[in-house]
């Protein structure tokens, strides 16, 4: 299995994209998965991931099957 590695600054790019479009893409979800599995993730980035996931649960963000 290929190890997941989070691109620096990716969390904030995902947040900006989701805030603009209201859609979480498959690529965004892979980025969030890598972030959740990253034990060295900064607390601020962890809170940002939590905010995105809460917005999905509340229906504020749609899930898309497209990658990009």
Describe the structure in your own words:
- The protein is mainly α and 68 residues long.
- The protein has one domain.
- The chain is 57% helix and 6% strand.
- The chain has helices spanning 10-21, 26-37, 43-57; strands at residues 23-24, 62-63.
- The chain has a two-stranded parallel sheet.
- The chain is globular and about 30 Å long.
Strand tally: 2
The percent range for strand residues is 5-15%
**What is the end-to-end distance?**
23 Å
Helix content: 55-70%
When the domains are counted, the total is 1
Poorly predicted regions? none
Total count of helical runs of at least 4 residues? 3
Spell out the helices and strands N to C. Answer: HEHHE
Residue-averaged pLDDT: 93
**Major sheet description:** 2 strands, parallel
Strand order of the largest sheet: 1-2
Structural class of the secondary structure composition? mainly alpha
Choose one word for the global shape: globular
Radius of gyration computed on alpha carbons: 11 Å
In short, what is this structure?
The protein is mainly alpha-helical.
Write the layout of secondary structure elements.
Elements: H1 10-21, E1 23-24, H2 26-37, H3 43-57, E2 62-63
Parallel strand pairs: 1-2
Brief descriptors of the model:
mainly alpha, 68 residues, single chain, globular, 3 helices, two-stranded parallel sheet
